Automatic annotation (TrEMBL):
The chain crosses the membrane at residues 53-75, 87-107, 182-200, 212-231. Pfam families: TRIC. Residues 262-286 are annotated as: Disordered. It comes from the Eukaryota. Its main location: membrane. GO terms for cellular component: endomembrane system; membrane. GO terms for molecular function: identical protein binding; potassium channel activity. InterPro entries: TRIC_channel. It is a multi-pass membrane protein. This is Trimeric intracellular cation channel type B. It is found in: Endomembrane system.
């Protein structure tokens, strides 16, 4: 492809408006995540029929989770995401269709693989948009606080995972063992990488044109999301993390200690086997 044409495409991607299509894709995936996380009962009414308010609130917490947590960390109002009535009404309409559409047709369409791929790709484009604007906004508030900038960019891009425990608590579930900080998902790690790249660009350590950097992040998100759906590649960072932990987090020394301990145990067993055992006649003579 001609470099100028590629740059023009990248520039158009940076200027995409998120409402309505990209936001609807985000709301669809969040509401589907809530529905799929609700335990299925063999008898009785579904949770969404018995507790519609709880179901709606938990869905809204995921839909606006990144903004809620980011505002809390920045000392801004946690209710700010809900002041945009257009976004709240759109998210509510998507929630209603996912849970209450006739014959469950909308949810089934959302689970249909080709539709799921399109929705996921749109969602990843929105994720890159959120991370970038979070980095820019935080850099204006705290220009030299690099950790804060990366933190807010990560929270805005992966807020639904961080909000998961609170969303479950609204539905009467408390599973602290699934905390995102205990078991970070690939999305959280990818948002850390994207926030770091945008920060380096702002600090002029990366001198490439902004549309190319932004488009590269979008491709990065979309590629690995589609790879997870089609090929089952859920965490490409895992091999590098394992190597890093083995070298710098004590894994190598733990392995050496286990090897030495096992060798000592084997030597002790061999020494015990070398000790002669007295026969019954020898014991009588004694």
């Amino acid at each position: 492809m001609d470099p100028q044409t590629f740059l023009d495409i990248a520039t158009k991607v940076t200027k995409l408006k998120m409402y309505p299509f990209f936001d609807i894709a985000h709301y669809t995936l969040m509401c589907m995540a809530v529905r799929e996380d609700i335990p299925q009962t063999s008898s009785g009414s579904p949770f969404s029929r018995k507790h519609p308010l709880s179901c709606w609130l938990s869905s809204m917490l995921l839909c606006f989770g990144g903004s809620i947590i980011a505002n809390m960390l920045l000392g801004e109002s946690m209710l700010s995401p809900f002041k945009d009535h257009r976004s709240v009404l759109t998210a509510t309409a998507v929630w209603y269709l996912i849970f209450y559409s006739p014959f469950d047709i909308v949810y089934k369409i959302g689970r249909f693989l080709p539709c799921k791929l399109v929705v996921a790709a749109l969602k990843e484009c929105q994720r890159a948009h959120k991370v970038y604007h979070a980095v820019i906004h935080t850099a204006k508030l705290y220009p030299n606080a690099y950790f804060v900038i990366i933190l807010i960019g990560t929270v805005k891009g992966a807020g639904s995972g961080l909000m998961k425990n609170f969303e479950r608590l609204v539905r009467g579930l408390w599973i602290p063992g699934t905390n995102e900080l205990l078991q970070p998902s690939f999305v959280t790690k990818a948002c850390i990488v994207a926030s770091s790249v945008f920060l380096l660009e702002r600090l002029n350590y990366i001198t490439a044109p902004h549309p190319l950097i932004y488009f590269g992040i979008v491709i990065f998100f979309v590629y690995f999301k589609l790879s997870a759906l089609l090929l089952g590649i859920h965490d490409p960072f895992a091999p590098f993390e394992n190597l890093f932990c083995a070298i710098f987090m004590g894994g190598m020394w733990d392995a050496m200690r286990r090897a030495v301990t096992s060798e000592k145990k084997e030597e002790d067993k061999e020494n015990k086997n070398d000790i002669p055992v007295k026969s019954k006649e020898d014991k009588k003579k004694d």
